[in-house]
Amino acid sequence: MRRSEFLRAVDDHFGARANWILDDLVLPGIGQTATDALNAGVPPRSIWQALCEENDLPESARYGAGLREPRA
Questions:
Q1: Read out DSSP for the chain?
Q2: Interatomic CA distance for residues 37 and 16, integer angstroms
């Protein structure tokens, strides 16, 4: 998962709460916020998995999140 895909997935799944999720929610599995983790070099996929766990997102949201639809 690329950083851009991660940010797209957060926006898609959390909408208006996306900024709060990124900047204020400390992820127990990581020990810091998503923004801090990204800046520290934690892989976006690991952060996404921690967000999914913390927010009880279904399995269907965990894989393929943030990917764009193929061009026609």
A1: --HHHHHHHHHHHHGGGHHHHHHT-EETTTTEEHHHHHHTT--HHHHHHHHHHHTT--HHHHSSTTPPPPP-
A2: 21
Tell me the Ramachandran region of residue 3: left when phi exceeds 0, alpha when psi lies from -120 to 50, beta otherwise: alpha
The two structure tokens encoding residue 37 = 């983790």
Mean pLDDT of successive 10-residue segments in the chain (72 residues)? Answer: 89 90 92 96 93 87 66 64
Q: What is the pTM of this model?
A: 0.83
